[in-house]
Amino acid sequence: NQSLTELQLIGSNLPYQGHLLHDGTTFCNPMWSSKDANVSCIQLGYPGVNVEQWNSSYFGNIGSLSGVRTLERRYNCSGTEGSLQLCSQAIGSEITCEKENAISVTCQSYIRLRGSDIPLKGRVEIFHQGTWGTVCTYNGESFATSAQVACWELGFNDAVQHGRWESPLVSGKIWLKDVKCWGDEKSLVFCPHNNWKYTGCGHYYDRYVK
């Protein structure tokens, strides 16, 4: 079997959803399950699959992409494997199938909002090395563009409010400090920032967006 190390998602404006692609090949599979989808998301570095959209089909017509073929690959994943390579695979499964049946998934994003009862508002948390942690910034004004990128990544149009989170955590990881996005990044983790797990900042300066 070919290595699936370079698994990608294409066809969506959001980095964590789209058609699965490897080496110019998309997947189709009538037996594709949420467990298979979860493993594909883990392999891509995300926390897992969005269980409500694990086999979505609204990312455009894969047939419009030149040079892309679609093969049937049947996996039988338990859902916890680190990659599709580690799942059992049916013998002789690589047969050509219709491109309109190409598999697409929506993974859980690298970021999430937590700690608020108000819809679409919360403390910004980043997923890194298998753990969620906060984003800390002393200068709130410098976080304005980063707040916009965070909202785009979550699928929202704009950041209407951002600031210091009013209920600081007592413990927990702080993954990023002084994130300064340019505004064209697809994810907060791609923005310039201090080293991961920077210790020179406290939860008092954790950031929220709305």
UniProtKB/TrEMBL annotation:
Subcellular location field: Membrane
Gene3D superfamilies: SRCR-like domain
Subcellular location, principal: membrane
Membrane topology: Single-pass membrane protein
Disulfide bonding pattern of the chain: 77-87, 181-191
SUPFAM superfamilies for this protein: SRCR-like
Coiled-coil region(s): none
GO cellular component: membrane
PROSITE patterns the record matches: SRCR_2
Stated name of the protein: Neurotrypsin-like isoform X1
Highest taxon of source: Eukaryota
Keywords, alphabetical: Disulfide bond, Glycoprotein, Membrane, Repeat, Signal, Transmembrane, Transmembrane helix
